[in-house]
Amino acid sequence: MKIVIAPQEFKESLRGIEIAQAMREGVTRVWPDAQTLLVPVADGGDGTLQSLVDASDGELMTARVDDPLGRPIEAVWGALGDGRTAVIEMARSSGLAILKPEERNPLVTTTYGVGQLMSLALDAGYRHLIIGIGGSATNDGGAGMAQALGASLLDADGNELARGGGALANLSRIDVSGLDSRLSDTKIDVACDVNNPLCGETGASAIFGPQKGADAETVAYLDNALHRYGNLLQRDLGRDVMQVPGAGAAGGLGAGLMAFTDAQLRPGADIVIDALDLDAKLEDASLVIVGEGQTDRSTVFNKAPVAVAQRAEALGIPTIAISGSLGDGFEAIHDHGIDAAFSILDHCMTLEDAMSDTAALVTKATEQACRALRVTV
């Protein structure tokens, strides 16, 4: 019997690989001779970098780059075990969590550090980049990223623009003659699970600007600046990206990545699953086990457990979920490939108690689920 174990991390508790190991212990208590394949997954958000590195036998790398305000920061990126793929999470260099609340100012925050990480990955020979763009502190449309990769964003006098979303109001011309030529033979997949356009009522500035420190006046200013930027991307680069779903993700970084690097925006879970070659790993499997910290009605929206289950369902393989807790509406997962779900909570306990003993609880829940399945397997 072959069982594929593909959970994601339990946030603020255990990494995906640690959850998978605990699940394997539960499986082997019931089926000692089962072949277990551990494939920790993620949905493109928190935990994606670590999960991909763990699952591919890759390596975490550290680089000194600029933070959202241009200060030096140590940022982690991942080199995967295939030798050609690098993983970059923009939150590591340009994330909101890096800044104190009083430092948040999307007029000046920049994605320059993202471009620096991309350049370092190219220097190291990687020609497939997976970029997670959640948790940004920025609203610069990826302009800083492009500048770090050699593009010039010029004002009416031919001077290079300062960094930050506010400076785009003075943008007059975009020159990509100095853009890193290695990008032309590099595949870039962007984990993006929002459909916002670049500008307008549902655009980057209006929807995400306030959480980054923008008041109503600043939101309007930034939206106009991004509109100018989008028009010049079309005029100077021939890339009309303003209305593409996801262009407004991460303060418009989605638009910048598409325009300057020909990146593809895809659901994060699908990118991770494909990078891990999960479809091949599912061949001849009898059972798939997924899991997450809490399974609820939101799980059906571009979350890794359902993405894995749907791949398994297409091959006729049953899937069960072992989750930290089962929240409101979790039953919706049964219409999306997950046949049964089990909580690790085996008695009334506090969140602190559950998180302090997560591995043992996961093992016990997995064991009991497998014992129930053994009745018919």
Notes on the structure:
The protein folds into two domains: 2-41 and 277-374, Glycerate kinase, domain 1 (Rossmann fold); 48-268, Glycerate kinase, domain 2. The protein is of the alpha/beta class. It is elongated and about 75 Å long. It is built from 13 helices and 15 strands. β3 (59-66) and β4 (72-79) form a beta hairpin. The chain has a six-stranded mixed β-sheet with strand order 3-4-5-6-9-10, with helices on both faces. The N and C termini lie close together (10 Å). It has helices at 16-30, 48-56, 91-94, 112-123, 143-148, 204-208, 216-237, 249-261, 268-275, 278-282, 304-314, 351-356, 358-374, and strands spanning 2-5, 35-38, 59-66, 72-79, 85-89, 128-132, 152-154, 173-175, 187-191, 264-266, 287-290, 294-295, 319-323, 325-326, 340-343.
Distance between the termini: 10 Å
Mean pLDDT: 95
Q: Could you tell me the radius of gyration in angstroms?
A: 22 Å
Q: Which fold name fills CATH's third level, the topology of the largest domain? A: Glycerate kinase, domain 2
Q: Pairing-aware structural class of the strands and helices? A: alpha/beta
Topology:
Blueprint: E1 2-5, H1 16-30, E2 35-38, H2 48-56, E3 59-66, E4 72-79, E5 85-89, H3 91-94, H4 112-123, E6 128-132, H5 143-148, E7 152-154, E8 173-175, E9 187-191, H6 204-208, H7 216-237, H8 249-261, E10 264-266, H9 268-275, H10 278-282, E11 287-290, E12 294-295, H11 304-314, E13 319-323, E14 325-326, E15 340-343, H12 351-356, H13 358-374
Parallel strand pairs: 1-2, 1-11, 5-6, 6-9, 9-10, 11-13, 12-14, 13-15
Antiparallel strand pairs: 3-4, 4-5, 7-8
Helix pairs in contact: 1-13, 7-8
